[in-house]
Amino acid sequence: MKRKFWNWIRNETDGERTLVLNGEISDETWYGDEVTPALFRKELDAGTGDITVWINSPGGDVFAAAQIYNMLMEYRGDVTVKVDALAASAASVIAMAGTEVLMSPVGMMMIHNPMTIAIGDSKEMQRAGEMLDEVKESIMNAYEIKTGMGRARISHLMDAESWFNAGKAVELGFADGVLHGEGTEDSVRGTEPEGVMFSRMAVTNSLLSKLVPKETEKRVPVEQLEKRLGLLRH
Q1: Digit-coded pLDDT (tens) for 190-233
Q2: What is d(CA 93, CA 114) in angstroms, rounded to the nearest whole number?
Q3: Which GO terms describe its biological process (predicted)?
Q4: Which of 111, 133, 198, 209 has its CA 20 to 30 Å from the CA of residue 50?
Q5: Where is average pLDDT lowest: 32-41, 83-92, 122-131?
Q6: Angle formed by the axes of helices 151-159 and 122-147, to 10°?
């Protein structure tokens, strides 16, 4: 039996069920595997009533995330998603299935373009690129449904690999509220802490601008460049 990346917890007092997604989505293959998705659905449908989904994941298999997203969207009860620390990449897609999405005040969400590994000639590379474009369009559907944001803006955010803190996730519509402590939540827009967003593209460009100064600026000594490049490796 393959190691599961999810776990169901049932509160015996009130019967409430909690799904915990912790770690990489699908440590082993899910796409093309009939057992793992069927097991997840069986466990999801093993009970009734509303469920809570806690997410702390860097992402993983986009096809696994897509199936989990669809299963949660089709679930008859309400689905409250709570982002514990991180909902990145494919995990952010699953988060979009929440009837209500709540972020920890110290949590982060990240969206970016899908990636793959391809081997072959130029035709194979072209097909791989076309496949990634289609996958991106499908991911954007989940973000668009949840946020109501235009697809062009969503695409730009994905291109830049965008990271949101709790306030920014709410501001952009990726989340509905911020968790403020045990048993307390604030799901009213406009009352959250100031939103902050940054992108890998912007950070990279900023670092490069410091490493490679403009012609009019003083050149950086070789030893300083080596030191800065050493910092980039960590």
Answers
A1: 444 566 666 666 655 655 555 555 555 566 666 665 665 555 54
A2: 12
A3: protein quality control for misfolded or incompletely synthesized proteins
A4: 111
A5: 32-41
A6: 120
How far is 61 from 36, CA to CA, in rounded Å? 13
Which residues of the chain form beta strands (DSSP E)? 6-10, 17-22, 51-57, 79-88, 100-103, 108-111, 162-165, 177-181, 184-186, 197-199
Q: What DSSP letter does each residue of 188-216 carry, written as one string?
A: -TT-SPPP-EEEHHHHHHHHHHHHS--TT
pTM value surpassing 0.85: no
Cα-Cα-Cα-Cα torsion 8, 182, 16, 192, nearest 10 degrees, comes to -90
Any idea where the domains of the chain sit in the sequence? 6-195, 202-234
Contact in structure between 18 and 50 (CB atoms under 8 Å) = no
CATH homologous superfamily of 6-195: 2-enoyl-CoA Hydratase; Chain A, domain 1 (3.90.226.10)
- pLDDT per residue as tens digits for the range 168-198: 999 999 999 999 744 444 544 444 456 666 6
